[in-house]
Amino acid sequence: MISIRLIAVLFGLLLASPAFAQVRVVTTLADLAWVAEEVGGEHVQVRSLCAPHEDPHYVSPTPSLVAAVGDADLFVEVGLNLEIWTDRLLDGAGNPKVRRGGVGYVLASRGVTTKQRPATLSRSQGDLHPEGNPHIWLDPLNMKVIVGNVTEGLAQVDPVHAAEFRARAEALNARIDAALYGEELLALLGSALLDRLAQGGQLHEYLERELAGAPLRDRLGGWLGRAQAMQGRSVVYYHQNWIYFADRFGLSVAAYVEAKPGVQPSAGHLKRVGEIVTANRVPVVVVTNYYDERLPRRIASDAGIQAVSVPIMTGGTKDAVTWFALLDKLVVAHATAFEAQTP
Ligand SMILES: [Zn+2]
How far is the CA of 82 from the centre of ligand 1 (A)? Predict the structure, then answer.
């Protein structure tokens, strides 16, 4: 009798232990893995297929990646033709649960308003992005949409813990709001109004309003507070993967080192970029750390300005292990370049 009771107890412990029923989540990018871990907590076991210092456009669907997708309960990708390698991966894995349209498939970009949608579809325009720019995760407002999509995916495949996932998502989004606007302005105006203003491009105009004799702008904190010095200023990037960040933080993109995404620039184009840098008093050329830095560094040194290499994905450097740390790093790297420049 005792041994049967013991077995029952042990079995009960096994069922109750989080490892027993963890949802196996596979994501394309580390940023999506980070979201799944934040929302899923102890109920998930997460793997990202693309390393955070690897170009997400080009990942080889190796047998080990195919096997991971074959075992997955939930598969999360950005979509928008960023991960052009996932078609082969999903086909090869033969896991109906995570096929597009399956219960365990999450399109993380669903509901995000895309930018830079090409007017004409032609490979002569460079690579890749016919549905608009897919590099969406550096805009905190987009990140909240991604959090919502991942949360609903988790709730679908693990309905028992759905309420917990939604509560954790709400807490995560509140942390994103505080990091973006600062606690003081957030408490004063609330995230619904702030998001609506930011989404419509009217936030800075609205913050000129006065409260108790001082403009509301003085109460803006967080990343947007730090970014005030770069409002309307110009920057040069290597690839077209910064438009959401630039727009959110008020930067104007004067030029890209790549004339067309994914295509090596000509000497004539590089010369033109140099002229644009001088004419717009661009203080910095920013290059994502998985691209070759030689061209951007040459343009920068010819123009007498600095080139900065930065990660674009969570975990892309050792000091950017969370998405919050990544955004901190990016806002500081940009703001520092503009603050150092004499007006
Ligand atoms: Zn791209």
Answer: 6
CA 128 – ligand 1 centroid, Å: 7
Homologous superfamily (CATH) for 20-112+128-174:
Nitrogenase molybdenum iron protein domain (3.40.50.1980)
Q: How far is the CA of 68 from the centre of ligand 1 (A)?
A: 25
Alpha-carbon separation of residue 293 from 6, 225, 242, 307 (angstroms): 62, 30, 16, 9
Whole-number Å distance between alpha carbons of 289 and 28: 18
Residue 332 Cα to ligand 1 midpoint, Å, equals 23
Topology of the domain covering 230-339: Rossmann fold (3.40.50)
Q: Which residues contact 16 (CB under 8 A, 6 or more apart)?
A: none
Full pLDDT tens readout for the chain, 343 residues: 456 666 655 555 555 554 458 999 999 999 999 999 999 999 999 999 999 988 898 899 999 999 999 999 999 999 999 999 999 999 999 999 999 999 999 999 999 999 988 876 665 555 567 889 999 999 999 999 999 999 999 999 999 999 999 999 999 999 999 999 999 999 999 999 999 999 999 999 999 999 999 999 999 999 999 999 899 999 999 988 899 999 999 999 999 998 887 788 899 999 999 999 999 999 999 998 888 888 889 889 988 899 999 999 999 999 999 999 999 999 999 999 998 876 6
Instruction: Name the region of 235 (left: φ>0; alpha: ψ -120 to 50; beta: rest).
Output: beta
Q: What are the residues facing 215 on neighbouring strands?
A: 210
CA 7 to CA 222: how far, in whole Å?
Answer: 54
| Cβ burial, residue 337 (10 Å; 0-12/13-18/19+) | buried
User: Distance from the CA of 57 to the center of ligand 1, in angstroms?
Assistant: 7
Residue 20 neighbours by CB distance under 10 Å: 9
Residues of the chain with CATH 3.40.50.1980: 20-112+128-174, 230-339
